[in-house]
Amino acid sequence: MYFYQKLLILLGFIIPFFFALSPTNTIDLNILKLLIPIIFLFWLASSLLNKKILLDNRLRFWLLLVFLLIVFLSFFWTTAPKSALRKILFFIATVPLYFSFYAASLDTTFRNKFLKSLVIGAFLVSCVSIVFFLCQFIFGLDSVLYILRTYVAPIFLGNSMSTLVNQYSSWLVNISGKTILRTFGTFPDPHLFSLYLSMILPISLYLYKKSFQKKYFVFSLALILAVLLSFSRAAYLAIITGGLFLLLSSISKQFFKTKSILIYSTFILLLFLFIIPNPLISRLRSSFDFQDGSNRGRIEMWQTALKNMQQKPLLGLGLGGFADRLNPSLGIRNPIYAHNLLLDFGAETGIFNMFILLALLLSPILFYLNYKSTLSSNNLSKFIATSFIIFFIHSLFETPFFSIRVFPLFLILLAINTSKKLC
Predict the structure, then answer these.
(1) What pLDDT score does 421 carry?
(2) pLDDT tens digit sequence for 250-267
(3) Residue 380 CB: number of other CB atoms within 10 A?
(4) Is the dihedral of CA 327, 332, 335, 337 positive or negative?
């Protein structure tokens, strides 16, 4: 195994635990941004020594390049050049991960070790988040918040980001009139945290179905519990949609005939779960409450993004231009976004690039559906497709591309090639 592959396995395990340096009060530098270029250079050196550079020739790779090219070009017409440059540098620092991981993933031994490290790291951050969630009922909410704001956030987010998070915090949620601390681990908010875990959940289930080791079943339960306690409605909808896709993809017609009692029992159990009052279902139902302040705010942002797309449909406002148009006084740390990944890039880089992004998000799903008849029932492609369904549904309510933890995971799952023949 090459040295860069060993670094990738380490990276998979500690993605949630990378800390951030704060050389100045306005600059945060997550160590992951330094490790990815280092891994890329080791991969390039290894490839040159072997006189063979493995590059992806699948459609998704070219879609990614076209999408990034348009994003980079939008710098020349944006109204927020500093914000755009910061985001472009983020892409430059993280996208090399795709190249090194694609080459490494062709090695089955590496791929299995990496997936295990990825799931274990997600399990550990889930446990950490659940412990903090329980501590609020033992030591009090204020005490736990003090520790998180004073010690945890500055270490993993950096001084500048932790200050911004404290100003626009989504760590708390009101459930039936009671304020509760949500699970968010080492992430800036529960939404990105729940998305990260939700995307890894299918991989954990894949490892369980492949090995039938009980630990992966336990890991999967911990991931689900941490996602549920994040009280992220987008995560709930995404994980339900992904679960239905995985279930329908795994069940044969014969199963419906032989396991009818199990199906009816499960349906009745879920029905009672929705009927009997509980905070999780209450939170899920509020997703469809258009009087809810958060829902109204999202709808207003979607409408604003659509209006901007109508005004500049071809080029958009330029990267960072959407937030700058709404409130230019907030500068490069402007937290405003359209609460929809497609609308964000549609408003900033044009309708054409929005459809390029849509095709990119759907490419692993369409790949699996296209080759489904030739793949085994437990093929990794099915579980990766499930992860992208979860990402797609969740991204209809968030813009996760600029998360230093979620975007690298997106690139990793996008780059995996489970077969040298199916490209």
Answers:
(1) 47
(2) 776 555 555 555 555 656
(3) 23
(4) positive
In the predicted structure, residue 31 carries a pLDDT above the cut 70: yes
Domain map of the chain by residue range? Answer: 3-415
pLDDT above 50 (res 269)? yes
Q: How does the average pLDDT of the chain come out, rounded? A: 88
The first and second tokens of residue 40, run together, are: 């890329």
Average pLDDT over residues 148-159: 90
Phi and psi angles of residue 312, each rounded to the nearest 5 degrees, phi first: -135, 75
| Interatomic CA distance for residues 386 and 392, integer angstroms | 10
* Terminal Cα distance for the chain, rounded: 23
Could you give the CA distance from residue 332 to residue 3 in angstroms, rounded to a whole number?
37
Structure tokens at 283: 């939170």
Phi, psi of 185 (to 5 degrees): 55, -125
- Please choose, from the candidates 83, 31, 50, the residue with its C-alpha nearest in 3D space to the C-alpha of residue 323: 83
Question: Phi and psi at residue 114, in whole multiples of 5°?
Answer: -65, -45
Tokens representing residue 58 in the block? 């699948």
pLDDT above 60: residue 361: yes
Who contacts 326 (Cβ-Cβ below 8 Å, separation ≥6)?
Answer: 304, 336
Over the stretch 66-125, which tens digit does the pLDDT of each residue have? 999 999 999 999 989 999 999 999 999 999 999 999 999 999 999 999 999 999 999 999
pLDDT mean over 299-303: 89
Per-residue confidence (pLDDT) for residue 319, from 0 to 100: 94
DSSP bridge pairs for 30 = 20
